[in-house]
Structures are given as C-alpha cells and as structure tokens.
From TrEMBL:
This is Vitamin D3 receptor A. Residues 17-30 have a biased composition (Basic residues). It comes from Dicentrarchus labrax (European seabass). Homodimer in the absence of bound vitamin D3. Heterodimer with RXRA after vitamin D3 binding. Interacts with ncoa1 and possibly other coactivators, leading to a strong increase of transcription of target genes. Keywords: Cytoplasm, DNA-binding, Metal-binding, Nucleus, Receptor, Transcription, Transcription regulation, Zinc, Zinc-finger. The keyword Zinc applies. The gene is LOC127377316. It is found in: Cytoplasm; Nucleus. GO terms for cellular component: cytoplasm; nucleus.
C-alpha cells in the first residue's frame, strides 16, 4: 500500500499518548520519493478496492506494521478511530471536519489561548485548535479528492459492480423446475431408503454355515485379491496385474467343472432365503421411489410395470453402493449379521460371472464420489429408459428421461465446474448396469429352474424377475 511509506509518521504510541508528531516530519515525508499529486493519483485506484458499493471515502487499511490488537484511537479527539484518513488515524467525525475545512479554505480563530485540549466531548467548541491538531498529526489536504475525482471513483465502483453482475449472470445455475426435480428425488430417496437398515432383522436369518462350494472358494479368492487390485477397478484400461488376477480366477473357476457346482455341493444354498427377502424388500422400496419420480405416475400402468420389472435389479445395485465399502469390498448394512461379502452371495446361487463385474461396478461408482443429488438423478435416468422391453409410450418416457439428464448436467455444471467427464462416466455406469442385469437374469433363470430353490424366493421376486417353474 502507498501509505506504508508513512508508517513512521504516526505510531500507535504517539496516538495513544496524545503526543504531537512534529509538523516538519509530515512536511518532509510529504515531499519524499513522489509528489502529492502522484501519490493521490496512485491512491485513487487503490482506494476503490476498499469501497462499499456506491460509497465514497478516503479510508484505507492501515499499514501492515500497525498493531491490529491495539485500540484504534483518533489522533485528534481520542474517539474510536475507523481507519487512516488523509494520512492519519482518525474517527469519522474528524475526517469529515478536516475535509470540509480544507475544501472551504476555512480560517478559524481560537477564542482562548490557542492551545485547547481537543476531546470527543468538546471537539466542536474550538474549530481552530481542532484543525491545528489535524495538521499536527499529519493529515494532508493533498489527499482530499476533488469533485471530479469523487465522480471518477463512483464511476469505477459502478463499473466494477456491473462487471460483477455480468459475471454472476453468466454463472451456471439450476432453474426452478430442475431444483424441484432434485428436491423431489432426494425426498423420495430418503423416504424409501433406511440407512439404519433396521428392517433387515425381520428377514429370514442369514445362514453362513455349511460346506464351502467351489464358487464360494473362488469368491474368497476374489475377495483376497480385491485389496491389491481395487485401485484398478475402473473403466479405464486395467493394469496388467489386475487382468492376470481375474484371468487366473476365471481359469480356476473353469477347471474341472462345466457347471457352477456339483449337485453334492449345491444341496443347500444357505444364504438364499435371507437374500431373497432382502431383494424382495429392496424391490418394494424401488417401487416406492419410482412412484415419487416427477411424471412417473402419469404413465400408463402397463408402462410403469414394464419399467419397474426391467430396471429393478439395476436400481438395487445402484442403491447398494451406499452401503458398499472400498476397504473390504463388502456391503455393510448394520450389525455383523448384515455385513455381506462376495462369499455370502455365492451361497445364494450366484457365480463369479456376475460377482466379478458387480464388484468392479461398485468400486468404480464409489470412486466417483457422487453427491446425493447426482446419485438419485442417476437412478431416475436408469429407471426412465424408453428402450426397456414391453414399453409402449416410448416418446413420453424419453421426454421424462431427457428432463432428468438435463437436470443432472446442469447440476454438474453448477457443482463440478471442472468435472466435464463426470456426466459421461455416470452414463457409462448405466451401460455397465445393463450387462449386469443381463447376467443376473441368466443366473436367476438357472436358479428358478430348480423347484427346491425357487420355493425359497418370495412372490414379489418371482413376479418381478419371472417364474420359470409351473
């Protein structure tokens, strides 16, 4: 700051003690280095930085050397100072008095002996001694702006205000409809997703005992490898090490078996009843969420059913990411009984053809660090897919999906200014879900062909995923 040069002109000690700074010091300092006119021109622009919109003041921030913890006292009258004014620490009252006196070229005469003590209470009594005190502490008329300079400063402030308004207008923001969509989806998610997982205790209990099947053994191997290779679980090219790990797992899976497990090993899928209840419960919550998506209930009943049947497992996989842990590649849904690892899912009849890409999907989605708003929008976009089998009003569903996609893109622009690729990565997750859905359907059909396993499924699961048993 230009005023840093004048730090020695008025020290906090001289202000507090009431000692006068000799006039010749201010006079000498005034003419050092630069002329007053040059300093005034330079300071004019620096003043604007500390201006409030549409106000004019010559207040500036004090020199860096000034003790900010010391009381700020006016060097003229001892009142509380508001800053450096015209090169001295003063209150607003003395600042205004000095400016008016200099502009009017006023000449005052002391009615007493010319050495009045100026205080906050009597500063109006003797203008001559007050003005003399102003000059003694270093206040300089050269720092008083002319009317033209005041107007110029106002113009500069107005220009900056207009520039800021223009930048604000250019800043991306959500429109009212998009804000309502996001609010509705977040509310729908909160109402249909219990993060405490308290209802899980009502399911048929999980049973993890029993002989370890080949699928379970291979799943344990996958789980042990997950820590080493989890950083490579994304949709960019995988590392050679990761490819080798999964290739060896698949070879292990294929060795000595043309079917997932022998009949002896598959006599009992101990986790099937519990996970069937979990999936049935999750389907109910997905239905509740769908009904609160703006525009969904306006569709025909046939289209609502078609969309739900086709997308239910994908929405469940998306939602399960909330409980997925990158630390141990498991889903934690409350207590230890409801912490699910890959091995548990194999005991419900699923194999690595589903579980390997499912874990990759969960890791990749988790690493996107989506906001809750982005997560619920992705679920809505997933559900409102016009290319689902059995859909009739493709155009209307596509319009609804487009609204969700536009809202998601707008949200990303507002909240992730540098995240240009985030939307593309999220849409890629929807393509991954289609592949997972297809593999899940294949494994479900294989399971439902066996009556002893099909009878463990709930009516809702059979209705949504289809029953292959008559």
């Amino acid at each position: 700051m230009p005023f840093a040069k004048y730090a020695n002109c008025l020290t906090p000690v001289s202000i507090r003690s009431g000692k006068h700074t000799p006039p010749h010091r201010a006079h000498t300092l005034q003419h050092s280095h630069t002329t007053p006119e040059q300093r005034k021109q330079t300071d004019l622009e620096s003043f604007v930085v500390v201006m409030e919109p549409m106000t004019v003041t010559t207040s500036v921030v004090g020199p860096e050397e000034f003790d900010r913890n010391a009381p700020r006292i006016c060097g003229v009258c001892g009142d509380k100072a508001t800053g450096f004014h015209f090169n001295a620490m003063t209150c607003e009252g003395c600042k205004g008095f000095f400016r008016r006196s200099m502009k009017r070229k006023a000449s005052f005469t002391c009615p007493f002996n010319g050495s009045c003590t100026i205080t906050k209470d009597n500063r109006r009594h003797c203008q001559a001694c007050r003005l003399k005190r102003c000059i003694d502490i270093g206040m300089m008329k050269e720092f008083i702006l002319t009317d033209e300079e005041v107007q110029r400063k106002k113009d500069m402030i107005m220009k900056r205000k207009e520039e800021e308004a223009a930048r604000e207008a250019m800043r991306p923001r959500l429109n009212d409809e998009q804000a309502r969509i996001i609010s509705s989806l977040v509310e729908a998610h909160h109402k249909t997703y219990d993060a405490s997982y308290s209802d899980f205790s009502r399911f048929r209990p999980p049973v993890r005992e029993g002989p370890v099947t080949r699928s379970a053994s291979r799943a344990a191997s996958l789980h042990s490898l997950s820590d080493a290779s989890s950083d490579s679980f994304n949709h960019s090219p995988e590392s050679v090490e990761t490819k080798m790990n999964f290739s060896s797992l698949l070879m292990m899976y294929q060795d000595g078996a043309s079917s997932p497990d022998s009949s002896e090993e598959d006599t009992k899928l101990s986790m099937l009843p519990h996970l069937a209840d979990l999936v049935s419960y999750s389907i109910q919550k997905v239905i509740g969420f769908a009904k609160m998506i703006p525009g969904f209930r306006e569709l025909t009943a046939e289209d609502q059913i078609a969309l739900l049947k086709s997308s239910a497992i994908e929405i469940i996989m998306l939602r399960s990411n909330q409980s997925f842990s990158l630390e141990d590649m498991s889903w934690s849904c409350g207590g230890p009984d409801f912490k699910y690892c890959i091995n548990d899912v194999t005991k419900a009849g699923h194999t690595l053809e589903l579980l390997e890409p499912l874990v990759k999907f969960q890791v990749g989605l988790k690493k996107l660090n989506l906001h809750e708003e982005e997560h619920v929008l992705l679920m809505a976009i997933c559900l409102l897919s016009p290319d689902r089998p059995g859909v009739q009003d493709h155009r209307r569903i596509e319009q609804l999906q487009d609204h969700m996609s536009e809202t998601l893109q707008a949200y990303i622009r507002v909240n992730h200014p540098g995240g240009r690729l985030l939307y593309a990565k999220m849409i890629q997750k929807l393509a991954d879900l289609r592949s997972l859905n297809e593999e899940h359907s294949k494994q479900y059909r294989s399971l439902s062909f066996q009556p002893e396993h099909s009878m463990q499924l709930t009516p809702l699961v059979l209705e949504v995923f289809g029953s292959e048993v008559s």
